[in-house]
Amino acid sequence: MNEVVRAKVKKIIFLLIAAVIFGVILFPPVVLFLTSIKTELDALSFPPKWIFKPTLENYTEIFEFSPFARYLLNSFIVASLNTGVVLVLGSFAAYSLARFRFKGADDIAFWILSVRMMPPVAAIIPIYIIMRNLRLLDTPWSLVITYLTFNLPFAVWMMRSFFREIPREIEESALVDGCSIFRSFRSIALPLAAPGLAATGILTFIFSWNEFLFALILTGSKAVTLPVGITGYMKETGINWGYMTAGGALALIPVIVFTILAQKHLVKGLTMGALK
Hints:
The protein folds into two domains: 2-57; 66-271, MetI-like (MetI-like fold), CATH 1.10.3720. Strands 1-2 form a two-stranded antiparallel ribbon. Helix 3 crosses helix 13 (241-261), helix 4 runs parallel beside helix 7 (140-164) and helix 8 packs antiparallel against helix 9 (181-192). The protein is mostly helical. The two termini are 36 Å apart. Helix content is 75%, strand content 1%. It has helices at residues 2-36, 40-43, 57-64, 68-99, 105-117, 124-133, 140-164, 168-176, 181-192, 194-210, 213-218, 226-231, 241-261, 263-271, and strands at residues 234-235, 238-239. The protein is built from 14 helices and two strands. The longest helix has 35 residues, at 2-36.
């Protein structure tokens, strides 16, 4: 009986700890959403009001009185293009490093990872000069190319481990049956590594969607993304908390929906190779 009681007590303690952690994680987005449906007077009240009459004025006004729809579209274009290019190039590079052994393969893999280690702020001035000379400033392509520089190393190292988990014998049998290396990669390796590709794609999309520094420096008015556009509601006359929180709440929706739709593949991808 004592062991049964102790097991129940431990289970209750773990549940309470999980509930506390879950509450801490959810507290910021809940406050963000509640503030977005408050009037300006309620949002600035102290102590904060938890019981109030909700309103959707902030959501309608950011589309009417600011180019929020353009910010949203720019972020979606940049994040989608960057994720697509990263998955295509990263899968080829990762498969090559995982399957073909050649002199300096490990050194190349570490060099790719070292690019990710570099502080982004250290490269902002050279990248700005390059984009200016290419006449790509204030265009989505400047952000796509720049994000590619930092997201591709992450994708290569992540997908490299996924391809390594695929037994070589499956591909070798396909080669014996007459498949080319590219056909084996396309028809066997990619489908088997689909959960890993989904996990990599989701994380890459989130990184691109939330990036602020390069979007601030490389854009001016035409290609402004959501993180930069939302900060535009901070002006000399004060901070429009209603617009900022409404924009922040809307910015969470695509990432949440994307993650929920690919949740099954995301869990498989992040745990791929943990169990044999």
